[in-house]
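Anyone able to model this chain together with pyridoxal-5'-phosphate?
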Amino acid sequence: MEHEHVRDVDPAVADALEGEVDRQRESLQMIASENHVSEAVLDAQGSALTNKYAEGYPGSRYYGGCEFADEVEQHAIDRAQELFGADHINVQPHSGTQANQAVYFAMLEPGDKILSLDLTHGGHLSHGHPANFVGQLYDVEQYEVDAETGYLDYEGLAEHAEEFEPDIIVSGYSAYPREIEWGRIQAAADSVDALHLADIAHITGLVAAGVHDSPVGIADFVTGSTHKTIRAGRGGIVMCDEEYADDIDAAVFPGGQGGPLMHNIAGKAVGFKEALAPEFEDYAEQTVANAKALGERLVENGFSLVSGGTDNHLVLVDLRESHPDTSGGNAEEALEDAGIVLNGNTVPGETRSAFDPSGIRVGTPALTTRGFDEDDCRTVADLITRVIDTPDDEAVLAEVREDVESLCDANPLYE
Ligand SMILES: Cc1ncc(COP(=O)(O)O)c(C=O)c1O
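re: yes, here you go
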């Protein structure tokens, strides 16, 4: 077979792929769930393993020719084990959502009860929102953060658990800027004999690096996405005690998925190896330091942050007090025009809607990967402020865009 590049076969897609690399290079990716994987992870995910069917698990497949698939998957498992220390690890979920679904499918019957954080308070669709099948198949109630402080209301959660008697409590969040006290949630689960699923999708890298406490060894199940703070490429992961291993494996395949995406599992193996290197701890620490610096400067500039600050890789800005006429959606649009890409986000006590929320979620994982430090992040906070102060001023947006380009040039990506 002659080696043809995408450009030889499909110039339209080649243009779009190049456009995407340029977009990532020339603008600031501040969506808190995104990151830039290494070229090694890109290579692995773009490898010939995409051709391979490997239904089953290493050493026990339903297809022949799996010796290299086995090697790759075993490397991914072993490295994840070194990073997280869980008894049993399944690296096949195609995404964080499917990792969560595998846990529900393994442990619950339709109609069983899930207690999870409200979406507008920082939860995730896969934790039981009615728009996800999980919300339709199970009986879901939701806990909240404290309206005053923005911190998780652990006592309220425990009381809610006493009343509702859930079969499983879900912790771990999409837009919660504070460290999570896993032990307090476990205590609430224990008091009503519920299982506990800790979804560390966002903070997988912070946990792997030891920058945040791990729920492994506390919660019954720990799930995550592998493309966020841990930078191991697209996918999901489930970790559990040995007693649940067979049920979880069966729920991932054949319960919820077909053939594993072996090329993505290769990406996970390579990304996990990178995360085992000492530099990854520096990266995770810098990601948090950057978010703190960014948040502090935003507060100095007059913004209000949910919970007043951050312990992790993101800040959640509530625009209602400082910019009552600007929604998160307006801010997102103006910032994108200026080269700063993030998302409008609901805030606790939301008074607008999920489609036109009152806040923005601002993350530092991708900027930190490309070399940004606290000073750079303070500069970015000032640029964000300029845009949100005058979202309709084209001249300001153009000036900010120039400053963004200078920051990008000083911190090159995929050279
Ligand atoms: C807490 C949480 N869980 C699960 C997911 C789903 O991850 P994925 O997009 O990999 O399905 C996300 C995505 O952002 C998340 O924030």
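Residues 17 and 155 are 49 Å apart (CA to CA).
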